[in-house]
## 1
Amino acid sequence: MEPDSRTRWRCRRGMLENDWLLGQFLAQGYAQLDQEGRDAFERLLDYPDNVLLDVVMGRQTTVDDGIARLVPAIRAAAAAETAP
Amino acid sequence: MNLTRRKFDALIIGAGGAGLRAALQLSNGDAKVAVVSKVFPTRSHTVAAQGGVNAALANVLPDSWHWHMFDTVKGSDYLGDQDAIEYMCRAASKVVYELDHFGVPFSRLDNGNIYQRAFGGQSQNFGQTQAARTCAAADRTGHAILHSLYQQNLRARTHFFDEYFAVDLLRDEQGFVLGVLAFEILTGEPIVIEAKTTLIATGGAGQLFRTTTNALINTGDGMAMALRAGVPLEDMEFVQFHPTGIAGRGMLITEGARGEGGFLVNADGERFMERYAPRAKDLASRDVVSRSIATEVREGRGCGRNRDHVLLDLRHLGADAIHHRLPGIREASMTFLGIDPIEAPIPVFPTCHYSMGGIPTNCLGQVVAPVKDTPEDPVPGLYAAGEAACVSVHGANRLGGNSLLDILVFGRAAANHILEYLSENRYHRPLDEGAVERAMARLTRWDRKDPGDGTAERIEPLRRELRKVMEDHCSVFRTDEVMREGVEKVRALRERLNHAVIADHSATFNTARVEAMELENLMDCALATIRSALGREESRGAHSRIDFPERDDQHWLKHSLYSLVDDSLDYKPVRTQPNTVASFPPKERVY
Ligand SMILES: Cc1cc2nc3c(=O)[nH]c(=O)nc-3n(C[C@H](O)[C@H](O)[C@H](O)COP(=O)(O)OP(=O)(O)OC[C@H]3O[C@@H](n4cnc5c(N)ncnc54)[C@H](O)[C@@H]3O)c2cc1C
């Protein structure tokens, strides 16, 4: 399923790093999520920007297993875009 | 017109540090306050600030507000207004202690005092030894400030319109600003927010450039609203660039990488900085490195598919040094590029970081414009603070840690003046329905359908082109010829935007419409920036011209004012006279 506009807007963040990471995932990873994954993604979007970035970068761990399962997919989507 | 209408004493557009600091002061002063923000408040761009906020607390090394003032005047390349700079530096300690009181968890010394770190451009004794002036809450100062201020505002019962997009100011025939037309992003429903006073705190316009450290939301909306309301923008040519952003992405690779021995190479594998700065090489000053990179790319020695960047090579430092001394840089490169700098060089290009220019204000936060007889008559009912404003404490160049200070000091000052204004202006002026209709027309314009004759333009390609044009014609490589061409290109893009349509016409969560309106704002800011840059025939601070390499105080110690309504440039003098101390006369800026 493609992300709806509400989810897209929630991916507009205060930091460019998060804009990029979430934007890449929306384009390349989101469609493959099941309902559980989509719910976890919404919970990730509830995090403050710094926490979100730390969790995705692996600097901080989360007790939310659903979110933890998303992290490798988000990182993979970000690195999949070839360098210029 | 049959629209939802709400009335407040004070309206604040923007919920970053500037907007929230002002809102808190107003709510605590018993004004009825509304804050409009296009994203949830704590997702404002202030959250990205990591370094910290400056104040001469003298907790680590001796310091004084007067030394801070000297550094700021010098840093501004003497274009900063010295009355505003004095005001800011004097207020700094108070503002930081207030934050401490609001719950910002500043890093501490063993004795319990706020810890302070040393940043570039900070000195003791008017340019002597290094000072330590920056207060930080670990590496998340912006985040801590934003969250504390938001909590305080909830407690003070500030009214928030979260995820509302402000379209245009409502100004009456007499020039009074009476509020704003906005719409709720969720429902698409327009709303008129009437207010006796309106404060613009919408942040910067970093999205003007293809490579930027700024988040996607930084589209200069408030600056463009001011332009359309007839207020000129001040000093828009001054945009701070950092030489090494990740190419194609924008995030910063700090100077640390070159400090540790990393060097830049072009497509021929040449260490080209040796040619531009034989002595300092890769550690030459920021503007020199930025311009050298841009020159390499322009002359065809760029790297990559599009030959549009250079490479930062760290490989010779070895895996150990990179792991231990540059872990953050390695992590960023791997995450955003998929490149491990131990194995391959990092593609880099100058990245836009901060807008020094903006909506002209005085020290009280009042927007000032040449409305009557002077270039600085207050626009009744209108205020601005933060990166959207130009009270001109940064002049031609901002010092690290001074921007968080600016947003807090002048957010607070604006609120204090608003409280005074409210006590003298108890009633709402009648709304000008013509102004409402004009603003509504800007909104409904996006209901237009594709005529189907192949003339329709689309938002995303126009946005991409604009950012590329600004990067190629108005970033760090500025000459008369390059910018003249740029002005024509920006004008052509603005024209094409008139023919743009969006595919989505649904009411709810129509982000296509938001993005279209953001692009309109960027276009207006782009014209202001490149016209002002073309006008200024000297090099000063962040504005460096290849055809006019020297600072020229005799002709250019003045602020630019770009007015959109008649597409014209004007100038006003720099306020070189501080409030209580002697003026710092212009000197050559050497560090
Ligand atoms: C990566 C990075 C690091 C930085 N680090 C530091 C640092 O260490 N120290 C320092 O002093 N400075 C730093 N800066 C600069 C500093 O962070 C900013 O200048 C400052 O935070 C700007 O604050 P503001 O309140 O003016 O605007 P912002 O925080 O950008 O807030 C703007 C607000 O306006 C709202 N808005 C915008 N347009 C609309 C609209 N049309 N309708 C409704 N709402 C709207 C947004 O939703 C947001 O709430 C840094 C900048 C960057 C990019």
## 2
Amino acid sequence: MTLTDLSLGETGIIQKIEADTALSNRLRELGLLDGMAVRMVKMAPFKGPVEIKVRHSYLSIRWNDAQSILLKS
Amino acid sequence: MKYHFGSSSAKGGHDGDRWVALVGNPNCGKTAIFNLLTGLNQKVSNYPGITVEKKEGLARTDHGDFRLLDLPGTYSLSPESFDEEIVSEQIDQWARGMAPPSVIISVVDATNLGRNLYLTSQLQDLNIPIVIALNMMDRLEENYHIDYEKLAKEMGVAAVVPLSAKLNEGLPQLKSEVIHAFIDNHDIADSPPWMDSEMVSKYASTTHDGYASSRFGLAQSMRDQNKSGMNNGDHEAVLRYRWIDDILSRVTRREVETPLAPSRSEKWDKVLTHQWGGPIIFVSILYFIFQSIFTWATVPMDWIQLGMDNFSTFVVDKMSDGMLRDILVEGIIGGVGAIVIFLPQILILSFFLTLLEDTGYMARVAFMLDKGMTKMGLHGKSVLPLMSGYACAIPGIMSTRNIDSWKERLVTILILPLMSCSARLPVYTLLIGAFIPSITVGGYFNLQGLTLVLMYFLGTAVALILAKVFSRWIGEKSSSSFIIELPPYRVPIPKSVLRHVFIRGKLFLVNAGKVIMAISIVLWFLASFPKVDSPNSEINPIHHSYAGKIGHAMEPVIRPLGFDWKIGIGLLTSFAAREVMVSTMATIYNVEDAGEETVNLKEAMRADVHPETGAPTYTPLVALALMVFYVFAAQCMATFAIVRQETNSWKWPMFMVVYMTALAYFGAMAVYQGGKLLGYS
Ligand SMILES: Nc1nc2c(ncn2[C@@H]2O[C@H](COP(=O)(O)OP(=O)(O)O)[C@@H](O)[C@H]2O)c(=O)[nH]1
């Protein structure tokens, strides 16, 4: 399951990030590490960006990029 | 090897004196702290060769002064955007011993310690003493406790100073800790504490030469490998966060651990970024801003007009007849005065823009609009530059630097000057005020305000359509992502907002002072000479002046747009800056009138009639065509100079001049000729 499978308000644990190097490096630097808990806060309509909460901060990530974040099922 | 910094001020920095760098994540309050530390002792310049704002200031303390440099906000030393590249390149130079600061102030948002300390820990590798400015203390939850001294000790920084830029608390302590750090001998380990000995020997072999700090070299070596994708399982971010989280677990205490609990901002966002409600609110806010520019500004504008009138009467009374008086009254006071009157509107516009940015609302707008912007070939982060374009294209173009894809950044730059900037406001205001009746339409809307909104809308709509066209035409697939932080909603710091508005107003006036005064004087000469000896009462001498001749020569080209020779001169002078149009018209009418007082431009234009037919020279239709011309026209040379620098080629600015001029000419022609066909005159 990926980040975009979370419904609004649901929390998941990051299993791993399967994105290209630049994107996964950036996500890691912002604190999205394996084992971190994330909560789905908001989804913009028409598969626009999603807003998640991780480590006390709110991040916005595009739908496609969010799909490369795999969660523990 | 141990490093001692007692003497680092000798090699440190500009001119051998000690100076301090301010580094931090975006939105951590860096600007606010910079302002508090330096007061009015600051200057904004550009980095050599590139148009990135470099803010420097002088901080005064009882124990001596130090110079302060503010760097753009960044999350880490692995840059994604041009903005971040500036910071990482600068820091790389310091690591190589090139003019490093004596002390770094690492500004940290206390409400988001882990993520903010990531950058701090990267800075530590430089072996430069670091003072952590723990900002936003006023926003810290009550159940959260931080042991500052222990944090400083465990991290290995010179000091941790809790403060609040908003309440102006803790700044004296910050200054004295910086002074302390100058003279303290600071011992720093020569390898990062989060690397084990195995890693140290592994990455030592791939470390580049030339780093003054071996610790930075080691970390950079791992960063480079991470970047190329061959990380062998070691990951800088993973290791650093593990180290930071471990320290935080020992120096912070939370009575209830709730890292994912909804914040107050999240509740606000239920409404403000609601799927459908959000965009409606955004459009309403924009509409409100533009209406208020028109309604609120009229009172101070009347004052300025009155002041100018009195001033020129005063000058006329006090000075004796002669050319000097004519230049002063007709050229300078008439020309500059016609511009200064728009100061209130510019201040109101930049006030609202600053407010939207500082409250954190702009990030939400970017979030809401990212999908739509992507569809148009732009980027969620294009929204702020485009909106700044309403104030001035130049800061707008410069703020595209944080868009992480070159193509989308370029498209944003190409269309940005179509956003009606505040220099066009004087032109719109003059024409609307003179020719559009102030009546209520649709029971609710003021026709003047509506016309103004329409001009902004026209520019914006065409800009978005062209973005799509240009994006197709450039081809090249984009590789951007849109990872931004949505900062909590904050009440802006009034002083910060006012300072920003003040700086904008000052720039506008300085411009009015220099460019516009020079042009007004030159124009006055062109419009006043050669003098006709016996002016016959029918034909005004200005027709025979140099300016008149130039304008008349242009007339055949601009006649199809409904413009006469006076507007022609205005269009020419507008190449320097758009608002010069207004001062040009003012100077021409003042010279033409040649009376004792400066003329009221609005009334003069309304009263202007064709010398032969007696029909009004300017009609609402001509005014409309002229406004449409200004919506599109490429007129501000400074803009294209900036585009040249930001795109590093003449190709793009030239392209912009061509497409914008074509749009302006044919757009205005369509309005005028179309209007005539419909039976308007
Ligand atoms: N509550 C609170 N807000 C602050 C503080 N410092 C800055 N801010 C606000 O945080 C926002 C971002 O600040 P700014 O100085 O522009 O951050 P920068 O992006 O790091 O330069 C602005 O709205 C400031 O008014 C603080 O200590 N407390």
## 3
Amino acid sequence: MLNSLRQRLSNIPRGEDLRNRIRTLIDDRVRIITAGLSIRELRAVLRGDPPTEKPNPRYKVITTSFIAHLRPRYYPQGSTWFTHTFRLGWFTTFFFMVELITGLVLMVYYVPFPDQAYGSILEIESNVFLGELWRDLHRLGAEAMVLFTWLHLFRTYFTGSYKGARTFTWLTGVLLLAITAWLSFTGYLLTWDQLGYWAITVGSSMAEAGPVFGPATNLILRGAPDIGVGGLLRFYLNHVVLFPLVAILFISIHYYKVSREHGISLPAAIEEGDVNDNKKKEANRRVDLIPDLLTHEIFLVSVGILALLLILYFDLFNSPLETHANPQATPLDTKAPWYFWWLQGLLKIDPAKIIENLVNPILALPLLKPLGLPPLELSRLLNSKFIMGLIVPPVVVGILFVIPYIDRNPARLARKRPFAILWGIAWIFILLALSYMGLPQFGIETPAATRVIQDLAPEEGMGILRETPYEELLPGIYTVGETDPDGICPSDFSYRNRETGEEVIGCPHLTEVFAQFSEGLLRAEEEGRLPDLHATMLIEQFGPELIRVELDVIWTDPETGATKIYAKHYFLHEDRSLEE
Amino acid sequence: MKRIHLEIALGTIFIILSSVVLIVMAAEEPGRLARFEVEQRAEQIEFGAAVFEINCTSCHGSHAQGIPGKAPCLRCPELFASRLAEVGWPGSLEDYIVSVVSTGRQVSTRPALYQGEGKGPPVMPTWSERFGGPLRDDQIRAVAAFIVNFQGWAENPEVVPTPLVAVDINDPVSLGRVAFVQYGCIGCHAIDGLSQATTGPALDGVATRAETRTGYESAEDYIRTSILNPGEFVVEGFGDGIMPTNFSELISEADLENLVLFLLSLTEP
Ligand code: HEM
């Protein structure tokens, strides 16, 4: 025993030998960890130097490393040109990663029960170190992901990259679009504020409008006829477990097609255009994953992170949080997130009504009248929620699905497929127009007094009344048409702005509030919508540091002659935030 | 420089910049958290005021000033100075309020002073959803924050302003309307546009009715007596002893004058 030990000891190399032994030992470990790169090679990679060994050990990594094997060995240079992909698909993936990481952090604090959900969001913002940052990152990342998914879709459409072998990639892409939409939709409810609650209630009520299975689908989705404990839990589980998994699966499939099967398409001009051979050669030169693509992607990560942080640092983005969800009170303007405005716009179109309006005048023509045809009452049979909410969106997705099969034109070059390009541009305009129609102000007739007050101080959100500094809220009664907005506070009135410390003379904010209130109402009076207008703004000290502002509008209804009153009031505390 | 070198250099700079931004944000974070808490509290108080206005004014008065005979003042010094000791509550005032509001009150602890709607127990109903009431926990917390916010006034009662209620200071009728709110008459009496309480008779047209009451010098005399000595003439359909009898001590001479003028302006159309 002792002998064998002595023998071993004498075998230990010394001097140069020892150093070499240790070096190979470390090198071996490094090779195992990097799946094939030695220390020297690793340094060459980091410096952007050519490979140090033959055969190129960097290719070995692709076969031995799990992570790297998901990636291509190389792309042809042409398909990495920035103006070809704009890195849109890449950034979509990046934002998805941001969502996964920030989402995991938020999950630590979030409680998916109606009586605690809203409070737990407040807790994240008020009691978790950098909690607001995490929440903003998650929200911003989500909106960016949706935006980039759409942009990426249009990019692959316009470059004709969905053709031929890439048809399947396109199909999985369409699924990813739907998955992304569903992820953002389910996440919207979780804050359990009025904004989320009502947007989701309106959105998911479409399911209920469906025939036969409608009510059952609604029940499965919400767990009860209305969104409550069960509904929140279901949306939560959809959002944090089921659909992240589904998304990971489909992103993997989508990406596998790109990275392993047919690469990113070459720019159409290279494939079909008449560019010179030099250019073609350049476009076909290999760009290796290690080190070029990898370095580039790490660089993109640094760009992405910096951009997100700067946007948040300069307060260019804020996650909204409105008042606690209240199933009894529908807010005046229910607003879906911007990327669903197109859907909200669709819901405002009533096709049955449009057909009626077209057909009924014809039926009423003198020629047809004697036939005694009754007027068409299509809207009785077809409700618009059903058509526009349940039929149209799946049809849109269906169209997206079959685009590669309808478009049999093999050419990818824009000038050889003018119709497809026009069709794509038309879609952009349709989406924008529908989104515009989806704005809460569009096409919904709000009574004049309600509109004026809602614009000053919306039921949810800020508005200029709530942005008025506390110091300017001078108690008093201000009557529209009598009180001059400019003379609303004493001429020698001044105060110190609490943020900037600057001296403010007069009360500019309050003046603006009252001016807007007066102008809106007086205009409506002139237009005959508010006859016999009598309107006041009443500012009252309601408690210490607490002001109550009441806006009263009294008028005579032009049709019935009855006296109408519309009144709203707001409590404003000295310490409230004046920003959203 | 090759593109890869440029990317390595820029990437490094961006990562360093990101770290700097993050460090700055982290340094500012304690301040932000503190500010958020203050702003959150402010919004809680505002929210509580709205909850109070919808649910509590019928008993505790439009401005939490209390209604004699019905329910106590919730902004007066007594609540802040001595009430906790009186009931033997060991915790904070805010928690006391949360507790009382959540469960309500079966029987009054001061039956001589406050009887709620006067319909027997409970003198104050349960408010918490947990016990079958209408309010969520966060609403009750908010209303408690709103009440505790009155601390400043309770400690300096002389700074408390009179409520406005569309007042014209030169018009006694208008001031009387304010007094009607201030002394809690609106807690029992309906007047079109002011209150819909049903504990006492609706006072629209009271001036016309007062003309017909026999045994009084004038309508004015009847109204004044009704306020100061309600037991002298009990309106049919209402019990004696519901309207507080101590208004002569509570209402100042000037306010009483205005109050009477205000009620005299309520003639039948
Ligand atoms: C979660 C959403 C998605 C992710 C993460 C994603 C990711 C990617 C990535 C990383 C690429 C490589 C090329 C590039 O960076 O642009 C790619 C290519 C592609 N994607 Fe997507 N994608 C998504 C959604 C979609 C959608 C909605 C469509 C279209 C309906 C689509 C269709 C395609 C096509 C056709 C390619 C091949 C492009 C080419 O070869 O030039 N993808 N995707």
## 4
Amino acid sequence: MSAKPMNTSRRAQAGKAVDLPALYKSMLLIRRTEERLATLFADGEVPGFIHLSIGQEAVSAGVMSNLTKADTIASTHRGHGHALAKGLSLEGFFSELLARREGLCQGRGGSMHVADMSVGMLGANGIVGAGLSIALGSALAHKRLRPGTIAVAFFGDGALAEGLLHETLNMAALWKLPLLFVCENNGWSEFLPSEKQIAFTLERLSAAYAIPYERVDGNDAEAVALRSREIIEAVRRSGPAVLECATVRVRGHFEGDAQKYRDRADLEDVAKVDPIMRCEAVLKKTRMSDEALQALDADVRSAIENAISVARAGQDPDFERAREDVYTPQGFASP
Amino acid sequence: MTEIRYLRAINMALADAMAEDDTVVVFGEDVSEAGGSFGASRGLRDRFGPDRIFDTPISEAAIAGAAVGVAMSGLRPVIEIMFMDFITLTMDALVNQAAKARFMFGGQGSVPMVLRTPHGAGLGAGPQHSQCLEAWLAHVPGLKVVCPSDPASAYGLLRAAIRDPDPVIMVENKALYGMKAEVADELPVLPIGKAAILRRGKEVTLVSYGASVHICSAAAAQLEADGISAEVIDLRSLQPWDEATVLESLSSTHRLVVVHEAVEAFGPGAEIAARMADVGFDELDGPIVRVGAPFMPVPFSKALEGRYLPDAAKVVAAVRRTLA
Ligand SMILES: Cc1ncc(C[n+]2csc(CCOP(=O)(O)OP(=O)(O)O)c2C)c(N)n1
Ligand SMILES: [Mg+2]
């Protein structure tokens, strides 16, 4: 058996058009949020490490445009885009990243562990590849409890080297689980290009499991949305699929990474394929006026500034409260 | 009263939990069609069907990781890892995911999963199929660890583990699987974190869990013949462990010996001894002595394994040391 390419683009395009302004807004929210996070981080207001997904927003916006609230996602260390596109509250998000009690995780998780179970966001993850099997389990539960609901595992090209990917692909294929694998291939994991780490292609790997595979320009929000739409419909009906999104990492691996290992030219090319600029160009040509675009940007910025003010006004988490959340007290299960 | 085997008690607990709550699902290697490598899940597939109990490939990391995702998404998974030695392959899912989720997501939810796994030497299974690694797990904030010593506690703790909202590791000494004991017709669910005092005594407290409990009982019988009265405590749970019961016993016996099959160095006994040396300092009339396996992998040869394992003679010797 070999993987059947889904060839979805033609049929999907014949269907309902993509809501480009909504995609644009979703990307803009991620971009402006991360731009502010960069400055807040530089100013020392955001503790720990942060990994920005600037340049990769189209993947989050495009895939999430086809998910419902009940669908679940497992994210990565570079998860702000996934989180915001899945619908986390902006105030809860900023409060978390600023380590506040009012944060979604009460200031105990931060950027690398932000989660919101109420919108099906099962967590950013500090462990490369770990989200794969969590999404696998979530898909398994969906299949039993909520047919038609799916789980999505986001992972970077670096996670291709983790053995857990093999276990997860195998089990997802074996059990025909409603699981979409989304690889955000930005060509880098930390400071080493992926071609120095990966001896195979995800396309050929998927074929080995007879899992349908699609590759899409991950910097084209419309393409991601269209292609993932039909793939996701297929995953809802019949089982796993792999979507590889070719994208670019604009910033360093983490904030503060001077990227000395990276070619200047590489970084210049990156600006040319910016997903937001590309989307904006299409919108300008077809639907939206400059004023409308500016108004949208102003809306997004003011929502972000509001969330930052809320976060700044928040309190430090309470130590005793944190201690109580390790596990339920002993004797809980007594009859 | 009826007489049942330890393995049968586990089987009954799984069946009763699955009957009580249809969100309970069981998966692992050879658990379904074969009924478990040791037979713990025999008959469950016929009764509950392959959607409730299913076999997995040999993918321990993904089995445990999937259990986390399953538990986050509305089911209560019970997974089996065939030998405790193989939990090395599940550690990320246990330590970084299951254990931390409640805490690091700010108490938004918990991970109600159970991992059952057998430990223990004595069957000639050799270095990679015998090790007692429970101290690793008890060291991780967010995991609960139970280790039953007999059929009734195997039943009661497994039922509690499955009802518990947090990840629970149930460690079963495989040498106990064939053990028979009389149990009540209605087996109670036992609270996690509560010890049982198996024998009252005045001069020394013997604390252990799992199979070592029986060594302590044998030692207590021998000591009694020599006129020494020993109290025997079965911890049942290691995380959380019943510090209050141990302290109370120490307060009346004033001497303490901690016994387990796990390697003595950095083992669970180190924690118990250290806590009692602290909170029980004023009660102590002798050194706290530990009896555990020597610092070596579990050997294969019976000649070596016999010396490796703790036994009643070693416990008696430890008691004499603290009484001296
Ligand atoms: C298991 C594990 N190994 C190593 C790391 C350190 N680390 C964090 S991100 C990263 C690179 C991941 O690359 P990729 O998956 O391509 O994601 P990207 O950073 O490009 O988004 C590494 C090695 C980790 N967090 N977890
Ligand atoms: Mg990468």
